[in-house]
Structures are given as C-alpha cells and as structure tokens.
Amino acid sequence: QLRLVESGGGLVQPGGSLRLSCAASGSTLAYSAIGWFRQAPGKERAGVWCINRTNNRFAYSDSVEDRFTISRDNAKNAVYLQMNSLEPEDSGIYYCASTFWGCSGLGDDYDTWGQGTQVTVSS
Fold first, then answer.
1. Which positions ≥6 away from 110 have C-beta within 8 Å?
2. 24, 4 Cβ separation under 8 angstroms
3. Fewer CB within 10 Å, N side or C side of the chain?
4. How many helices (H) and strands (E) does the chain have?
5. Stretch 24-40: mean pLDDT, rounded?
6. pLDDT at 29
7. pLDDT band at 36 (very low <50, low <70, confident <90, very high)
8. What is the pLDDT of residues 63-111, one digit of tens each?
C-alpha cells in the first residue's frame, strides 16, 4: 500500500528558498498524479501544484505559480516542490497527496496523504 512522507520543511527568512520532498514507499508513484497542498493557520487546505503521470504541471494558486516549481523523479519514487522567494503568507503545513486519476486542486480527489511538513517564513 502506498505511503507518502514529506520532508524539507523548516524555518526560513522571507525571500529564502526551501525544497520539499514527497517520498513514496509501498508502491510506485509513476502512474499517479501527485499534488501539493498547504494549510495555513486558520485557513482551509488549498491546492498548490500538481504533476500528473505524463509530467504535465498544474498550478492552483496564482500567488505561487511563478515562485514554486513541482517536479518528479520516478527512479527515486519522489516528487519535489521547489519554493523560491518565500513570503510569510506561504507559511503553513504542506502536504503531498496522490491520486490514480488526473490532477485536481480539490483534496477530496486524492486517495493517499502524507503527514505534512511545516513551513514557517519569518524574519
């Protein structure tokens, strides 16, 4: 059974960068669409980026489309979220999730979730 584990979060100053990783075990990610979501304090979970099985990428947040990049490495069974020019508003818990179907910005469309990794952007 597929299991996802996020890593790479932490405390970073505004303008800094982080690279989040979503590592899979138990099954391959190669045939799944993988989405990154984030949940800011007091807000609902929202989609950020998704990459499908053919490496098409979909952004679900205008505020990150030019600053964040999603990629995958099927050989390592992992998906990444490169986050640049981070802003305090980017703070929150970041989750990766998988679906056998196509990319979606809706969390309910995903089957398997990781436990999340905390990102805090603060000076």
1. 35, 97, 98, 99, 104
2. yes
3. N
4. 0, 11
5. 95
6. 92
7. very high
8. 999 999 999 999 999 999 999 999 999 999 999 999 999 999 999 999 9
Diameter of the chain by CA atoms?
A: 40
Beta strands in 41-85 (DSSP E): 46-51, 57-59, 68-73, 78-83
Please identify which residue in the block is written with the tokens 């947040």: 61
- Considering the chain, what percentage of its residues have pLDDT values greater than 90? 98
Task: For 55, list phi and psi in degrees, rounded to 5.
Answer: 70, 20
Using CB atoms within 10 A of its CB, is residue 33 exposed (0-12), middle (13-18) or buried (19+)?
Answer: buried
| 109 CB burial (10 A radius; 0-12, 13-18, 19+) | middle
Tokens 């993988």 map to which residue?
34
Q: How far apart are CA 15 and CA 4, in angstroms?
A: 28
